[in-house]
Amino acid sequence: MKIALFTWEYPPKIVGGIARHVYGLTRALSKIGVETLVFTCEFPGAPREEKIDGVRVFRVDSYRAPTPDLATWDLVMNQSMEETAAEIIDSENGTIDLLHAHEWLVAKASIGLKHTLRLPLIATVHATEYGRRNGLHDDNERMIHETERWLTFESWRVICCSNFMTDHVSWVFSVPRQKIDAIPNGVDVTEFVGTFQKNSFRRLYALPEEKIVLFVGRLVYEKGASLLVEAVPRVLARTNAKFVFVGEGYMKEQLIATARRLGVAEKTYFTGYVDEKTLKQLYRVANVCVFPSLYEPFGIVALEAMAARSPVVVADTGGLSEVVEHDRTGVKVYPNNVESLAWGILRVLTDDSFANYLQANGARRVLEEYSWDQIAARTKKVYERIVEEYAKGPWKPSST
Amino acid sequence: MRGIEERKEGFRVHRVTNPVRTHVNIVTWALTLNTELERVASDIIYESKNQERLIHASEWICVPAALQLKKALHTPYLLSLYSTESERSAGGPLSGAITYLEKSGSLQAAKVVVNSKARVSLVQKSYGIPADRFIILDVANDPINKLIEQYRSCLSPLREGLGDIE
């Protein structure tokens, strides 16, 4: 089986979670006999064509013309991606079985190729504009929303990362539930092992007597970092801790000002972005990882924390609610509720045996259900279903 | 499958609807509309089976679909340029994208159709198109027959494996 896969980001270009997702998925697919050709944007220093772990990557010319905004840039980039992919797919002599698009950013290229080559198209919807913006407020957001709807309409089947997203996508785009497959994101657990100087690394972030409460995510409204800042005094009233916030976002200054207002500035540390290696080590020295999101399609950060054997406290919302089993693999708290959040954090920080129990269960759950091998096997089954249905139907290049 | 179809005397019109209704500018509108043009044109090409085929695109606004149909389905195209972006615009924020499509479309067209020698020189200078690639259509001098003659010279050779299986 051979798949052409479209994504605007692929390592080393990493903007959000799609790059990591596609990277993990394609490597695991390769191991089970699914050959993938990845079409993605160019990136300084990265070769235009390469083969990594069995995955063929084609980086297309993405800046052919100056453009005034993201939507215009994206569509011009799609034109380039579509032309390049048409030539490469053509040179594969009819051996491509399926096109797989990740997100609206590659909708035009993948839909155009679907019709010109008459190949079935599948889309993974990682998040929606409606969800990201909590509604649609201007023409730019409406255009992205309609492009997302167009992609789900044109796709043979749609993959969502959680039951929450399945419900949401079905509602927001009127996609029949029967057309959607819920397959979670995966985590490469091997990235969270290996030795390093834990004590000296830990001292970069907290005093030896302070427990580390770690938040990882964009510092934007929907990730709930402000709730965690508000919870700091309640936690400090019962235990000594340092609150480490990893990430950037438009709320950063506001969060720092809130910490000052609450008199806990010296107990918070806003690191900004950190590199992958540092992040993985931070997960491993944290006493608890906290994800108080208000909107979360999936919550890959919670899985990464669990893979690193850190106990997690999450808001009982969206995909996070499905990733964590309360009192078994983590602690769920009420969304948008500072008191509940502080309660959850203290529950872990003040009971070592409970924290150890969550650590062990969480790590086991990730290995059993969220490894890329599991995710790739489930994705391959969806591919096989589509290829089989396509083979039976009349819509093909060779017939009308 | 093809959009709304009108049958006129000797030709058919297929009207397509932009799958994305809200837009932030004419370039985003044109690019999504072109994908729908590709869908309809692909269906016609696949249904035409053994017939020879050729696309005649008018202006930059139809270049994306023409380019893609050329690359994916080996269908050559002619491009008519009634004016160029440098003549129409003083260089707004979208001019770069429009110029890119106009240039890319001209460079890959089998023939570039213009209405005057002056425009040949302008397009040649702007986009580096070889002189023998131009067709000048003079409205006073039997342009339709001249165009049909050019169409014949550009028709795609039949390609094995595409549209030839009953």
Give a brief outline of the structure.
Helices cover 46% and strands 17% of the residues of chain A.
Overall description:
The complex is a heterodimer of chains A (400) and B (166). Chain A is α/β, with parallel strands linked by helices and 400 residues long. Chain A has two domains: 2-186 and 372-392, Glycogen Phosphorylase B (Rossmann fold, 3-Layer(aba) Sandwich), CATH 3.40.50; 189-369, Glycogen Phosphorylase B (Rossmann fold, 3-Layer(aba) Sandwich). Chain A contains 15 helices and 14 strands. Chain A has helices at 18-31, 70-91, 107-117, 129-133, 139-154, 163-173, 198-203, 225-236, 252-261, 276-285, 300-307, 318-323, 338-349, 352-369, 372-392, and strands at 2-6, 35-41, 49-52, 55-60, 98-102, 121-125, 157-160, 180-182, 211-216, 241-246, 268-272, 288-291, 312-315, 331-333. In chain A, strands 3-4-2-1-5-6-7-8 form an eight-stranded mixed sheet, with helices on both faces. Chain A has a six-stranded parallel sheet with strand order 11-10-9-12-13-14, sandwiched between helices. The two termini of chain A are 24 Å apart. By secondary structure, chain B is an alpha/beta fold. Chain B has one domain (4-154): Rossmann fold, CATH 3.40.50. Chain B contains six helices and six strands; from the N terminus they run ββαβαβααβαβα. In chain B, α5 (117-127) links the parallel β5 (111-114) and β6. Chains A and B meet through α2, α3 and α5 of A and α1, α2 and α4 of B.
